[in-house]
């Protein structure tokens, strides 16, 4: 039988964040849920650093030869599109 071990994690927060969190009824649950949501949205390439290593940049440049970043006409989010695929959406 395995037990879920809980560990306390602390972080520094500026005064404006502390004040904003004071109105949240269950701060711990709110912070846990927020961190989990953020982790599910981390870029798979840079892993959330916001920058590419020199090796990653080389691979990205190779990929970019046949791909481009476009804005979706429906939701207006940016996404990667293969330039070899037809322009219209597939069914």
How would you describe this protein?
The chain contains 3 helices and 2 strands; from the N terminus they run αααββ. With 91 residues, the protein is α+β, with helices and mostly antiparallel strands. It has one domain. Strands 1-2 form a two-stranded antiparallel ribbon. The longest helix has 14 residues. The termini are far apart.
Describe how the helices and strands are arranged:
Blueprint: H1 15-21, H2 27-40, H3 54-64, E1 67-71, E2 78-82
In whole angstroms, the N-to-C terminal distance is 47 Å
**Which sequence of strands runs across the widest sheet?**
1-2
The global form is elongated
Largest sheet: 2 strands, antiparallel
Supply the key terms.
alpha+beta, 3 helices, 2 strands, 91 residues
In short:
The chain is α+β, with helices and mostly antiparallel strands and 91 residues long. It contains three helices and two strands; from the N terminus they run αααββ.
């Amino acid at each position: 039988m395995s037990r879920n071990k809980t560990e306390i994690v602390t972080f520094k927060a500026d005064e404006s964040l502390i004040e904003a969190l004071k109105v949240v009824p269950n701060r711990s649950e709110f912070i846990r849920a927020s961190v989990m949501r953020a982790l599910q949205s981390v870029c798979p390439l840079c892993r959330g650093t916001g920058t590419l290593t020199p090796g990653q940049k080389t691979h990205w440049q190779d990929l970019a030869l046949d791909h481009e970043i476009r804005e979706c006409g429906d939701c207006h989010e940016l996404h990667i599109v293969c330039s070899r695929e037809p322009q219209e959406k597939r069914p």
